Amino acid sequence: MDARDFIKIGMSAERLLVVPPERTVGHFVKGMPLVYATPMMILEMEMTSSEAIRAALQPGWITVGTEVNVRHLAATPVGATVRTTACVIAVERRVIRFEVEAFDGARKIGDGRHARGLVNYGSFTKRFGGLEKQP
Hints:
Elements: E1 12-18, H1 25-28, H2 38-54, E2 61-72, E3 81-91, E4 95-104, E5 107-120, H3 121-126
Antiparallel strand pairs: 1-3, 2-5, 3-4, 4-5
């Protein structure tokens, strides 16, 4: 399977998230403020990237995160709405590369690059003795 046959540069997606307490640094580390945690921002960037290309994937194929290079630029409080964007910037045989950004209103709070690898779901799960069924 060659991703270049069906994934196109420019494919994109956007997600919105109202920051809940369980996605903050203070939720994970006692005594820290309740501001949006970097790993949670990266999670949203990965999910947005996945959504940007999901409809184009062939049956039985999924993508998995393989690279993350992200900057977290500003703190965002609980209750703020974060908008995350992802856009395909390069497509290789089995790797799709994205530019990702996150915003709190007009203020950019994160940016970077993310890559996802194209894998056959059956082969992937067979390596681990079977996992839950594909959603």
